[in-house]
Design brief:
single chain; 398 residues; alpha/beta; Aspartate Aminotransferase, domain 1; Aspartate Aminotransferase, domain 2; 2 domains; 4-stranded antiparallel beta sheet; 15 helices
C-alpha cells in the first residue's frame, strides 16, 4: 500500500480549491448569478499593450524560451533594485534581488533557507493560508500571534513567543486576509526585535502597489544594514495581471540569495522567461496604467467602507488592498455561514476558519466569527450587488 508524508496529510487542503468545490455542482438562479469574491487575483488579463509586447517577445526573443539564470533576468533584478531604491528612499542593489516563480515560491524558498523541521516561525493571525500550509508541510511549527481589534500585531507579544528554535517573524502588509496596512513604526519595532534576537523579519508586500498611503509605507530600506535582518517578498502578479505567468521577487542579502539559488535550482531551475520579460516591460511602460489601477482599487475600498457603514449588523475589522475582513452577524461558525451564503445569496466568500485556529484548536473565536471578502474582483455594480444580497440574507437569516 502506498504511504504518504504524514506532514502533508496533516496539512489543510488549499482553501480556494476547497471553496470552488462548494460551487462545482451548484445551480444559480438566472436573476442571481454567482458573485465570486473568494480569490485574491485579478479577473482580467494583462492590459492590451502588455499582451502585445508579450506576443512580440514570444515571436522575436529566442532567449525567452530557454533556461535563464536561476536568480532571474539581470535586467529585471536591476530594475527592481532601482525602483525600490527610489520608492523606499533607500539603497537596494541588484545582487540583493532575486526573481522567483511567484511570491508563494519566494516565501517557500526563503523559509527553506531559514528553517527546518522542529524549528518555528511566528505568524500573526489571521494568517495567509499558504504561509501556514508550507510551514505545516515542512514540519516547522507556526507560532500564532494574536492581533488586536484592528488586526495589528504587537512586537512585545511576539517577543514572548520566541525561543531558541525560532527562526523568523512573518508580516504581510497590506495584509492578506485582513486588508490592514501596518504602520511604519510597527514594522520598525518588529525589525528591531528580530535584529536583537537574531531572527529574520520577512515582510510580504504582495499588495504594496495598492497601499492607500502616499510615499514609502515604511523606512526599513533606509537602514544601511537592512539586509542583515529584512527579507522582503513581492509579486508582479497583482500589479500587471500576470497571475498565470508566476513572477515574484525576494529582496535580501546576497548570502541569503546564494542559498535560495540552491533551492530554486532544484525546483524550477529558473523563473518563467516570458513572465519575467513581461514584468520588466510593465515596469518600464505601465506606470500611469498602474496608477490608474491603484485609484480603482481605492475607489472600491471606499465603496466597501460606505456599504458596511450602512449595514450595522456587520462589523469591518480591516479593509484595504484587495480585502475586507468582516465579522458576520449570524449565530453559526463562519465555515457554515460561507457555505450557506452560496445557497442563499449566490455569494462565494472565504470563512475565517481558513485563516486562523478555531476555538477547538485553541483560537479566540475570531475565526468562527469572520469572513474574507476579496472585493478587488468586483466593480462598482458588483459591490452594490454584494451589499444588496448581504442585506437580504441578514434580514431573513440563514
Amino acid at each position: 500500500m502506498t504511504t504518504f508524508n504524514p506532514a502533508l496529510l496533516a496539512t489543510d487542503p488549499p482553501p480556494v480549491m476547497e471553496a470552488r468545490r462548494w460551487i462545482e455542482h451548484a445551480q444559480f438562479p438566472a436573476d442571481r448569478p454567482l458573485l465570486n469574491l473568494s480569490q485574491a487575483a485579478p479577473a482580467d488579463p494583462p492590459p492590451q499593450p502588455l499582451r502585445q509586447a508579450m506576443a512580440d517577445i514570444v515571436l522575436t526573443d529566442t532567449a525567452a524560451h530557454l533556461y535563464g539564470p536561476v536568480l532571474g533576468l539581470p535586467e529585471l533584478r536591476a530594475r527592481v533594485a532601482t525602483d525600490w531604491s527610489h520608492a523606499y528612499v533607500g539603497t537596494v542593489r541588484p545582487d540583493q534581488v532575486a526573481i522567483t516563480s511567484g511570491c508563494n515560491q519566494a516565501f517557500t524558498a526563503t523559509i527553506s533557507v531559514l528553517a527546518g523541521a522542529g524549528d518555528n516561525v511566528i505568524l500573526p493571525i489571521p494568517f495567509y493560508f499558504n504561509h501556514k500550509m508550507w510551514l505545516d508541510m515542512a514540519g516547522i511549527d507556526a507560532r500564532l500571534l494574536e492581533t488586536d481589534a484592528a488586526l495589528l500585531p504587537d512586537p512585545e507579544a511576539a517577543a514572548a513567543l520566541i525561543d531558541d528554535r525560532t527562526r523568523a517573524i512573518v508580516l504581510v502588509s497590506p495584509n492578506n486576509p485582513g486588508g490592514v496596512e501596518y504602520p511604519a513604526e510597527i514594522l520598525a519595532a518588529f525589525r528591531d526585535l528580530a535584529r536583537a534576537r537574531g531572527l529574520a523579519l520577512i515582510v510580504d508586500e504582495t499588495y504594496r502597489d495598492f497601499d492607500a498611503r502616499d510615499g514609502a509605507p515604511h523606512d526599513l530600506f533606509t537602514d544601511p544594514d537592512w539586509d542583515d535582518v529584512l527579507i522582503q517578498l513581492y509579486s508582479f502578479s497583482k500589479a500587471y495581471r500576470l497571475t498565470g505567468h508566476r513572477v515574484g521577487a525576494i529582496c535580501a542579502s546576497p548570502a541569503h540569495l546564494a542559498q535560495v539559488e540552491k533551492w530554486l535550482d532544484s525546483v524550477t531551475i529558473c523563473p518563467n522567461g516570458l513572465g519575467q520579460r513581461a514584468a520588466l516591460w510593465g515596469m518600464e511602460n505601465l506606470g500611469d496604467w498602474l496608477a490608474g489601477e491603484r485609484r480603482e482599487i481605492l475607489a472600491r475600498r471606499a465603496a466597501m467602507d460606505a456599504g458596511f457603514a450602512a449595514q450595522s449588523d456587520w462589523k469591518v475589522l480591516g479593509c484595504g488592498a484587495y480585502f475586507a475582513y468582516v465579522q458576520h452577524p449570524f449565530d453559526a461558525p463562519s465555515d457554515v455561514v460561507a457555505k450557506a451564503l452560496v445557497d442563499r445569496a449566490s455569494l462565494l466568500l472565504l470563512p475565517g476558519t481558513m485563516f486562523g485556529p478555531t476555538v477547538a484548536q485553541g483560537g479566540s473565536g475570531r475565526a468562527e466569527a469572520t469572513l474574507r471578502i476579496a472585493y478587488a474582483n468586483a466593480d462598482a455594480a458588483g459591490i452594490a450587488t454584494l451589499f444588496d444580497r448581504l442585506a437580504a440574507v441578514t434580514e431573513t437569516g440563514l
